[in-house]
């Protein structure tokens, strides 16, 4: 197999009968050329399949049209659905995305910031479970516009798009109580998600207190992640330790909730007949799993869309109305929670 040499800007110029600088002007729309010449160059580009060198183009326009996106775990459904929103809006504004994965490791976050700087990105969107001040400082010192997407809304002076953890956890707990559930277990994510866990725990406690239900720390489980495996293992541990099974289990993510449901079934409990289960986020899997999952809906696509729009505004020097944006939630009722009052 013979590998053909890639088409260059010189080839396009020769075929179109114009100078290289004229081709460059057409590609970058930097200086006016006649409509006839412009069309001839565009036709040759189409015929030859020429793809402009992005680095060379950025040297001319002083713009890379690249936005860096740093994620804690690219396979996590929370991140994946946010990325859909980022990609959709970036396409609308003719920006490309450079993706960097960190596995929630601080050193990887710092390394990827420098990597994206070297790639001449015009802005950075950083999805993270918790916000580290050193990372914030490095981004600020880089001079590159940055927006954080975090499950927490820490009091740090940054551009941030976040979700409502305290009120969402309180509202879901209240919903379960209203359905006649008194003994409600809570699955939390600890470690790097300490503030997130604190906000949701306080929301849970507040709903219990308002409904005169005593807080029971023995049915609050702290896990190391928001995965199916974490939910499965924690539920097996919870149910093996409890003298009385909980009426409901409120999980920190939909993946955890599905792990909870499978653990319940494997231990001989039916969902929702024996134990109701509620999740958090409303990812696509929540709608197709059986039983379909009752959960806290968060507008993940919109979170990504808002964040990338903020970055593009910053890159273009446009005014940002709100530095911190918190998007609304709602309770989505499906099949995994039963009304115990009607049993």
Automatic annotation (TrEMBL):
Q: What CDD domains does this protein's entry cite?
A: HTH_LacI, PBP1_LacI_sugar_binding-like
Sorted UniProt keywords: DNA-binding, Transcription, Transcription regulation
Cite the HTH lacI-type domain residue spans from the record. Answer: 7-61
Q: Indicate the secretion signal residues.
A: none
A GO molecular-function descriptor = DNA binding
- Record has NAD as a keyword: no
Instruction: Say yes or no: keyword DNA-binding present.
Output: yes
Stored Pfam families: LacI, Peripla_BP_3
Which PANTHER family does the entry mention? Answer: HTH-TYPE TRANSCRIPTIONAL REGULATOR EBGR, LACI-RELATED TRANSCRIPTIONAL REPRESSOR
Name of the molecule in the record: LacI family DNA-binding transcriptional regulator
- The species is Peptostreptococcus equinus
């Amino acid at each position: 197999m013979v590998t053909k040499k890639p088409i260059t800007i010189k080839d396009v110029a020769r075929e179109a009968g114009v100078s290289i600088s004229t081709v460059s002007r057409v590609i970058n729309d930097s200086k006016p050329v006649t409509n006839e010449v412009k069309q001839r160059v565009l036709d040759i580009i189409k015929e030859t399949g020429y793809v402009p060198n992005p680095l060379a183009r950025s040297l001319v326009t002083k713009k890379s049209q690249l936005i860096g996106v740093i994620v804690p775990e690219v396979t996590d459904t929370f991140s994946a659905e946010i990325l859909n929103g980022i990609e959709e809006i970036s396409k609308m504004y003719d920006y490309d995305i450079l993706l960097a994965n960190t596995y929630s490791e601080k050193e990887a976050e710092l390394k990827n910031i420098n990597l994206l700087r070297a790639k001449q990105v015009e802005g950075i969107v950083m999805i993270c479970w918790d916000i580290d001040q050193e990372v914030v400082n490095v981004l600020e010192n880089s001079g590159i516009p940055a927006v954080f997407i975090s499950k927490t809304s820490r009091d740090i002076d940054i551009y941030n798009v976040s979700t409502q953890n305290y009120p969402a956890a309180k509202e879901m707990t209240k919903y379960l109580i209203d359905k006649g559930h008194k003994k409600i277990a809570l699955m939390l994510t600890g470690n790097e998600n300490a503030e997130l866990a604190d906000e949701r725990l306080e929301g849970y406690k507040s709903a219990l207190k308002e409904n005169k239900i005593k807080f029971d720390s023995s049915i609050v489980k702290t896990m190391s992640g928001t995965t199916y495996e974490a939910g499965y293992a924690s539920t097996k541990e919870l149910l093996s330790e409890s003298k009385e099974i909980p009426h409901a289990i409120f999980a920190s993510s939909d993946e955890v909730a599905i792990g909870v449901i499978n653990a319940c079934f494997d231990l001989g409990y039916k969902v929702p007949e024996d134990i109701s289960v509620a999740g958090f986020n409303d990812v696509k899997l929540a709608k197709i799993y059986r039983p379909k999952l009752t959960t806290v809906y968060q507008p993940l696509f919109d979170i990504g869309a808002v964040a990338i729009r903020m970055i593009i505004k910053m890159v273009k020097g446009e005014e940002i109305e709100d530095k911190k944006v918190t998007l609304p939630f709602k309770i989505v009722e499906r099949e995994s929670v039963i009304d115990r009052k009607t049993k």
